[in-house]
Amino acid sequence: MSVEIKIGKREKAYELLQADAQKILKLIGVQMENLTMPQCPLYEEVLDTQMFGLSREIDFAVRLGLVRADEGRELLSSLERQVSALHEASTQK
Amino acid sequence: MSVEIKIGKREKAYELLQADAQKILKLIGVQMENLTMPQCPLYEEVLDTQMFGLSREIDFAVRLGLVRADEGRELLSSLERQVSALHEASTQK
């Protein structure tokens, strides 16, 4: 029973973090569509702030023992790669 | 056993959040001592960013069911009150 609960919280923690990463990606996508200026300082600021927020969540989950440190790093760098790909696709339009 | 584990994670979650709030308070204190300018935009930006980071952690813990929403709000507003008090003490020097 205790193991089940632990796994449940771990899964939920990872799911929440992934959902938050997707939300950031979507926000950045919307920003790119509407601002059409990835060089805009506001864009950079929003991205930095959002990435910082997610990194704080991940760090918290790792310290709680709900997510492994390498999983957390991978989640963050995967998001970074996706944002870069979005960025590239948008500048090549 | 399962209940114990759950309580353990809840306590740990709250402890971590409180420790993070204390870290922010300390950082703001150091900034005030050294910058001696609470009106400085950099100071505001650091404070906003740190508060945002903590609010993301708290929100995550609430969504995971580890911290009650009202506990989370109280933790954040308690930190805000402490920062204000620090701010006031520093401007009255």
List the SSEs and their pairings:
Two copies of one chain form a homodimer.
Chain A: H1 2-35, H2 41-63, H3 69-91
Helix pairs in contact in A: 1-2, 1-3, 2-3
Described by the principal axes of the CA atoms, the overall outline of chain A is elongated
Biggest β-sheet description of chain A: none
Report the count of strand segments of chain A: 0
Oligomer: homodimer
Q: For this structure, what is the CATH class of chain A?
A: Mainly Alpha
Largest interface: A-B, 22 and 22 residues
H/E series of chain A? HHH
Mean pLDDT of chain A: 86
Count of the separate structural domains of chain A? 1
CATH fold-level name of chain A: Helix Hairpins
Low-confidence stretches of chain A: none
Describe the protein's architecture and organization.
Two copies of one chain form a homodimer. The longest helix of chain A has 34 residues, at 2-35. The N and C termini of chain A lie far apart (53 Å). In chain A, helix 1 (2-35) runs parallel beside helix 3 (69-91). The model of chain A has no long low-confidence stretch (mean pLDDT 86). In chain A, 24% of the residues are buried. Helix content of chain A is 86%, strand content 0%. Chain A has a single domain, classed as Helix Hairpins, CATH 1.10.287. Chain A is an all-alpha fold and 93 residues long. Chain A is built from three helices and no strands. Chain A binds chain B through residues 1-2, 4-6, 9, 12-13, 16-17, 20, 49, 52-54, 56-57, 60-61, 63-64, 66, and chain B through 1-2, 4-6, 9, 12-13, 16-17, 20, 49, 52-54, 56-57, 60-61, 63-64, 66.
